[in-house]
Amino acid sequence: MRDFPTSFFLSSALALGMTLTGSALAEIDMTTQSQPWTDGDLTGLSVCWEHPGYSEEKAWVASVIEREYAAKAHLFFIGWSDCAETPDARIRLGIFDFPTHTKGMGRAIDGMHSGITLNFTFSNWNRQCQMNRRACIEGLAVHEFGHAAGLPDALIPYQGDEGSCVGKSIAHLSALSFFLDDRSIMNDCNNDWHAAALDEVDVAALVRLYP
Ligand SMILES: [Zn+2]
């Protein structure tokens, strides 16, 4: 949804243990940005990997996404093979040592090159994650797949100090009739993001998008 990586803030701020303060609500209109997949897509959204290697890390991602999205929200991401073998896959995953990010919400990334970018090495970005790679990879993946499913970031963008959770507010996503709070995996200042778990507010939002 942004040209600038969406989760830059997540890992840099959260790894430092910063907390969200001052969560005053504000209204923003997300209707033009979130594009839920249509019914026909939901029996299984095919996912592929654009880059070879990293079989263990790829298995972590596929496993945590199944655990969270299939089990809790009945959203099924399937396939997980090389994009060369499945060029028609809907969601293409790139692996770069950049801030993790997703290039749009929901079907806005349909077939898009590196629609989701994940980071498995953390050599340049978010180096704290080298100590805790699996939790970082899983937590970031659950956040980015939230965007792929159509969820926005829970924080109001560009508010407060860049790189800090101080002064950030939760966005009240009234136009989509759901609400994400500070427990959401879509909240970049959620101190529990390493748990890589969809909160009930995330599941409720997904149910709203996919009734
Ligand atoms: Zn995000």
Q: Which descriptor suits the 3D outline?
A: globular
Q: What's the CATH C level? A: Alpha Beta
Order of helices and strands: HEEEHEEEEEHEH
CATH homologous superfamily caption: Collagenase (Catalytic Domain)
Number of strands: 9
> Total number of helical segments?
4
What does this structure look like?
With 211 residues, this protein is an alpha/beta fold. It has one domain (8-209): Collagenase (Catalytic Domain). It contains 4 helices and 9 strands, in the order αβββαβββββαβα. The chain has a 5-stranded mixed beta sheet with strand order 4-3-5-8-6, covered by helices on one side. Strands 1-9 form a two-stranded parallel ribbon. Strand 3, helix 2 (55-73) and strand 4 (77-82) form a beta-alpha-beta unit. Helix 2 packs across helix 3 (133-149). The two termini are 23 Å apart. Zinc ion (ZN) binds at residues 6-7, 143, 147, 153.
